[in-house]
C-alpha cells in the first residue's frame, strides 16, 4: 500500500529517491509507523511472481466490469510501449549513450477499453520481445477481464496473417489494423474500380474483400483514397465491418498513446530494477493507483470528469494542508483552507454513512480497522 500511495502522490524517480523520514506519511497511509527501507520494498516487489501480479490485474479488471466502469462490447486498444528503468544504484552518466539504450530495456504490452479509456491489462517483457510473441497471452488475459469476444484495435506492427488468424480462431478476437504498403498491395489498391468507393464523412472509402499470407479465408479491407492519390487501408477478419465503424474506431486508438502521456506523473513509464517480478508487480500497483485517482475524478462530478488525472492530482492531492489525529477507533483528518472544499467535502463528509449505504465496511483493514472522519476548516 505504501508503494501505491507513492504513485498517487507522484513520486516517480524511484524508491530510493523517497526520504524515509520526510515521507513517513506514506507509511502511515499504509498502516505502518514508518516507511519501510528501500531494500525491504525491493524484496517485496521481487517476491511476487509475474503470474500473481497478472492475477491481481485480472481481478482488478473484473471488478471494474462488475461495477459498470467498463462495459464489455466496446473496442479494445492495444500498444507496445518502451519503459525506462531505474536500479537501486544510479547509473553513471558516462555509461548512458546518446541512444538512451537503458530506456529501452523493458517493453510493456497494454490493452485499454476504448470507451472508458481505462487500462485493462499491462504485461511486461524484456526488450527484444516482439508483438508476435506476446499477443495471445495478452488477448487471453483481456478476455478473462471482459468475459467475451472483442475487437482489438492495433497499429501496423500487428499486421501479420498468422497472428490475426490465431487471435481470431483461438481467442475470438478480431484485429483491426492498418495495411502495410507493398508493391503487391499498391497494385491491388489501384485495381479497385471507382464505383466501389462511397463518399463518407471519412472521405472516399471502398469496402472490399482481400486475402493475406498465412490467413485462411477472406478479410475485410476498408480502402481510403486521399486527394493526393495516396492510399490508407484498414484490414480485419470482421467481414461485415463498414467504414462508418472502422474509421472512427481506429481513430480512437490514439487514446492508449495519450494514456501514457497523461499519467506520467504516476510513474507509468518508470519501473524498478531489471527484475521482471519487480517490474510486473510495480506496474500492477501503478494501475491500481491510476484507478484510485480516476474513480475519484469521476466521483467529483461533471465539472471535473474532463480533466486529466494529472490535473486532479495537482488540484486535490499535491500540496493540500491538513492534520491527522488518532481518536480511539477514528482517524480524524482536518483539511485547512482547501480551494476545492465544496467538491471534496461532498464526497468525504459523513463518509461512514455513505460507505455503509453502499454496502461497504467503513473500517479500513490496513489501518487497524479504524474509520476515517474528514472535516474541512
Plain-language structure description:
- This protein is α/β, with parallel strands linked by helices and 377 residues long.
- The chain has 14 helices and 13 strands.
- Strands 1, 2, 3, 4, 5, 6, 7, 8, 9 and 10 form a ten-stranded mixed beta sheet that branches. The protein has a three-stranded mixed beta sheet with strand order 11-12-13.
- A hairpin with a 2-residue loop joins strand 6 (197-200) and strand 7.
- The longest helix has 24 residues, at 276-299.
- The radius of gyration is 24 Å and the shape is elongated.
- The protein starts with a helix and ends with a strand.
Rounded mean pLDDT is 85
Distance between the termini: 28 Å
Biggest sheet character:
10 strands, mixed
Low-confidence stretches: 88-103
Number of distinct beta strands: 13
Strand content of the residues, in percent?
15-25%
- Shape, principal axes of CA atoms: elongated
| Helix and strand pattern | HHHHEEEHEHEHEEEEHHEHHHEEHHE
Given helix and strand content, the structural type is: alpha/beta
Radius of gyration, in angstroms, nearest whole number: 24 Å
Helix content: 25-40%
Count of helical regions? 14
Amino acid at each position: 500500500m505504501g508503494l501505491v500511495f507513492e504513485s498517487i502522490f507522484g513520486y516517480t524517480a524511484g524508491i530510493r529517491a523517497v526520504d524515509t523520514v520526510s515521507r513517513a506519511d506514506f507509511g502511515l497511509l499504509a498502516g505502518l509507523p514508518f516507511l519501510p527501507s528501500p531494500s525491504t520494498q525491493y524484496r517485496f516487489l521481487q517476491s511476487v511472481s509475474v503470474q500473481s501480479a497478472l492475477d491481481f490485474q485480472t481481478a482488478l479488471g473484473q471488478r471494474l466490469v462488475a461495477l459498470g466502469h467498463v462495459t464489455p462490447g466496446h473496442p479494445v486498444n492495444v500498444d507496445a510501449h518502451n519503459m525506462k528503468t531505474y536500479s537501486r544504484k544510479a547509473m553513471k552518466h558516462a555509461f548512458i549513450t546518446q541512444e538512451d539504450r537503458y530506456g529501452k530495456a523493458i517493453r510493456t504490452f497494454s490493452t485499454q477499453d476504448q470507451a472508458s479509456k481505462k487500462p485493462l491489462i499491462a504485461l511486461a517483457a524484456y526488450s527484444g520481445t516482439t508483438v508476435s510473441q506476446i499477443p495471445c497471452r495478452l488477448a487471453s488475459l483481456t478476455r478473462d477481464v471482459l468475459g467475451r469476444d472483442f475487437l482489438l484495435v492495433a497499429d501496423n506492427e500487428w499486421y501479420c496473417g498468422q497472428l490475426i488468424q490465431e487471435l481470431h480462431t483461438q481467442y475470438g478476437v478480431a484485429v483491426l489494423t492498418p495495411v502495410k504498403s507493398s508493391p503487391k498491395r499498391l497494385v491491388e489498391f489501384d485495381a479497385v474500380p471507382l464505383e466501389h468507393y462511397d463518399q463518407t464523412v471519412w472521405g472516399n472509402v471502398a469496402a472490399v474483400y482481400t486475402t493475406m499470407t498465412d490467413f485462411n479465408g477472406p478479410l475485410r479491407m476498408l480502402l481510403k483514397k486521399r486527394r493526393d492519390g495516396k492510399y490508407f487501408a484498414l484490414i480485419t477478419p470482421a467481414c461485415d465491418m463498414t467504414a462508418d465503424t472502422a474509421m472512427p474506431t481506429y481513430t480512437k486508438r490514439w487514446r492508449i498513446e495519450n494514456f501514457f502521456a497523461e499519467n506520467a506523473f504516476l510513474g507509468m513509464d518508470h519501473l524498478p530494477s531489471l527484475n521482471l517480478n519487480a517490474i510486473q508487480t510495480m506496474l500492477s500497483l501503478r494501475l491500481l493507483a491510476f484507478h484510485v485517482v480516476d474513480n475519484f475524478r469521476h466521483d467529483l462530478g461533471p465539472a471535473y470528469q474532463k480533466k486529466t488525472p494529472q490535473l486532479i492530482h495537482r488540484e486535490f492531492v499535491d500540496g493540500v494542508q491538513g492534520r491527522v489525529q488518532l481518536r480511539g477507533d477514528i482517524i480524524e483528518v482536518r483539511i485547512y483552507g482547501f480551494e476545492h472544499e465544496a467538491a471534496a467535502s461532498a464526497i468525504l463528509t459523513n463518509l461512514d454513512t455513505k460507505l455503509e449505504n453502499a454496502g461497504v465496511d467503513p473500517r479500513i483493514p490496513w489501518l487497524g480497522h479504524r474509520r476515517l472522519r474528514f472535516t474541512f476548516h
